[in-house]
Design goal:
By secondary structure, the protein is an alpha/beta fold. The protein has helices spanning 38-41, 50-62, 73-85, 99-114, 132-135, 147-150, 163-166, 192-204, 277-292, 295-317, 341-352, 376-390; strands at 17-21, 24-27, 32-35, 92-96, 118-122, 141-144, 173-178, 208-212, 236-239, 250-254, 320-326, 329-334, 355-356, 358-360, 365-368. Helices cover 35% and strands 18% of the residues. The chain is globular. It binds pyridoxal-5'-phosphate (PLP).
């Protein structure tokens, strides 16, 4: 009997992790596990990273928390560094505590600026645990189902000759909230041409483009941000998860000029920990480590290795329906039935062999999203274990 209210749909398989270091978890019996899910995509540079531990200790000893009445210079310094990372120098930024908040804050600002009834998004995107983007009320949201765009014939244009495109009510849409690739954990990537057309149209009508980089950002997809695979210029970038490496900090950044469009109207978002020095210091150190250690390039290089290994297993075993991924954001869709027996069993058998993966329930999907610091030997060991575990059909 547990006293904890756990999130439904996932069994807590490892009940007593005693410590974690780098890509490894150790249970209370001393058994080692390779963490291939980064604790819900969060530990981008590995558990207990020495530089993050140092910043946590030093900053907490100086000052951890601001009120609304006082601040400290680290917050401004960190904001400037984060804005420079996305070439938003001279723009504005807020530090928050979760990805859900980072998305919601940008949504509120977009609605305040554009004053149009709808925001557009992709029907299969996920944005967080609460707020307007969670509710997806159709009086506030136009959700576009892009599934038919995947098989769209080469050369076909996104224009009014396409019934799907023609149904988008751009005149009522004030913004586009785009999640570049995770799709509620299914790891699907909307087509580049479609996204570029939507962004072009939203900008042409004075709207704002917000990218939700909570999962796809901070090097996960082999670029700093998932939107960079689309050659688009967003106005708002929301980050979470990996930016704190396990510490709960999130960021919403605005291109220069966006906040000016509020004409001085305040963003009413009272949250006790916004712009806390501790979160700001951690976020700044995480991006410094990723930059200095070349971890974006590492993710870009390691991802194809992992994916081609999985493709090989797919061909040899016939037990995998599809492998999808970019960088170290990878989904394995199993050849499974509605009970997802194979997926569940694979997850458990891999755990026995010392590998922690995530399962996206309802879709027969295993996810592999290790820290960007993972090395080749651990990936090879996982691939070997995975092939043994799922065997030959
Ligand atoms: C794509 C995406 N956006 C937003 C969120 C919300 O982030 P958080 O759980 O930190 O609130 C999540 C969480 O899984 C996510 O996957």
């Amino acid at each position: 009997m547990t006293s904890i209210i756990w999130y439904p749909g996932h069994e807590v398989l490892l009940k007593d992790v005693a410590r974690a270091e780098g890509c490894y978890l150790y249970d209370s019996g001393g058994k080692r596990y390779v963490d291939l899910e980064s604790g819900v995509w969060c530990t981008s540079i590995g558990h207990g990273h020495p530089r993050i531990l140092k910043v946590l200790g030093e900053q907490a000893a100086r000052i951890a928390h601001n009120g609304f009445i006082y601040s400290s210079s680290i917050v401004e310094d960190a904001a400037r560094e984060m804005l420079a990372l996305i070439a938003f120098d001279g723009g504005n930024l807020v530090f928050l505590c979760s990805g859900s908040e980072a998305v919601e804050y940008g949504v509120r600002v977009t609605r305040m600026i554009t004053e149009k009834p709808l925001l557009m998004t992709m029907a299969d995107s996920y944005f967080g645990a609460y707020g307007s983007a969670w509710r997806r009320d159709e009086t506030e949201w136009f959700s576009f189902d892009w599934s038919s765009c995947e098989g769209c014939p080469e050369g076909r244009m996104c224009d009014t000759t396409c019934e799907h495109w023609a149904a988008i009510p751009f005149e009522r849409i004030g913004g586009f909230l785009f999640e570049p690739g995770s799709s509620s954990g299914l790891v699907r990537f909307p087509p580049v041409g479609l996204i570029r057309r939507i962004v072009g149209e939203v900008h042409r009508t004075g709207g704002l483009v917000q990218v939700n980089e909570v999962t796809t950002g901070i090097g996960r997809t082999g670029r700093w941000f998932g939107y960079q695979h689309y050659d688009i210029s967003p106005d708002i970038v929301s980050m979470g998860k990996g930016v704190g490496n396990g510490y709960p900090v999130a960021v919403t950044a605005f291109r220069p000029g966006v906040i000016d469009r509020l004409d001085g109207r305040p963003v009413m978002y009272a949250q006790s920990h916004q712009n806390d020095p501790l979160g700001a210091a951690v976020a700044r150190e995480v991006i410094r480590v990723i930059e200095e250690d070349g971890l974006v390039a590492r993710s870009a290089g390691m991802g194809p290795h992992l994916i081609s290994g999985l493709e090989g297993i797919k061909a040899r075993t016939g037990r995998i329906r599809a492998v999808r991924g970019r960088g170290l954001l990878v989904a394995i869709e199993m050849e499974d039935g509605p009970e997802e027996a194979l997926t569940r069993q694979a997850l458990r058998d891999l755990l026995d062999r010392g590998f922690v993966l995530a399962r996206r329930s309802g879709f027969g999907i295993l996810r592999v999203d290790p820290p960007l610091t993972i090395d080749l030997e651990d990936i090879e060991a996982f691939l070997q274990a995975f092939e043994k575990v799922i065997g030959v059909a």
